[in-house]
Amino acid sequence: MIPRFITLEGTEGTGKTTQLHRLAEVLRARGHRVTTTREPGGSTLGPDIRRWLLHSQDLEAATELFLLLADRRQHVAEVIAPALAAGHIVLCDRFTDSTIAYQHHGRGLPLAVIRDANALATAGLQPDRTLLLLGDVARCLSRAQQAKGGGDRLDREGLAFHHRVAQGFRDLARQFPDRIHTIDANGDLDTVTQHIHHALAIV
Ligand code: TMP
């Protein structure tokens, strides 16, 4: 049985967006109804919030957190919860784990605040399964920066920031081994797809 609410997480440039769309195609071909979405950006406010987050100058860490959470609250209410209620499988590109990895481990905001804020933003909704794509941090980051012509505000954070984020994700995977499956993202696209199918028992 395929989990209903699946999130893809990971550091920059691991190919999770490509993998998410590949997975959606495979699931649709098997007759599932699938909603694909992403954070930040999935709510009706999302495109504006995403632009502010990725391209504003000098955002305070707390401002960044509030913007992400405003988008998440609307996204859960407008998109994710209704799709799940309608029987869809929801594939979401980033969700609450990113906030712990980036805003706590990366930015240093307090974990307890982020946990409470996540709970408020999601009204308690948690992913059934999380596919965590982790690869060589420096190589993946430079791939992401090249693909985006220099990168956005978060891509341009130093390597030490991105290593802290990766460590944050690894800690989460250790804490929630039943939910979070770590996928080695260093291989080619097809190999990573195979790992994902294996994690979801898609044969
Ligand atoms: P993306 O490039 O994977 O679409 O993600 C956009 C950026 O937003 C990425 O650098 C990670 C960041 N982000 C956070 O910092 N915290 C969050 O909670 C989310 C959802 C994304």
Could you name the key traits of this structure?
203 residues; alpha/beta; Rossmann fold; five-stranded parallel sheet; 8 helices; binds thymidine-5'-phosphate
Overview of this protein structure:
By secondary structure, the protein is of the alpha/beta class. It has one domain: Rossmann fold, CATH 3.40.50. Helix content is 55%, strand content 13%. It is built from eight helices and five strands; from the N terminus they run E-H-E-H-H-E-H-H-E-H-H-E-H. The protein has a five-stranded parallel sheet with strand order 2-3-1-4-5, with helices on both faces. Helix 3 packs parallel to helix 5 and helix 4 packs antiparallel against helix 5. It binds thymidine-5'-phosphate (TMP). The site of thymidine-5'-phosphate (TMP) has 11 residues, from helix 4.
Question: In a few lines, what is going on in this structure?
Answer:
55% of the residues lie in helices and 13% in strands.
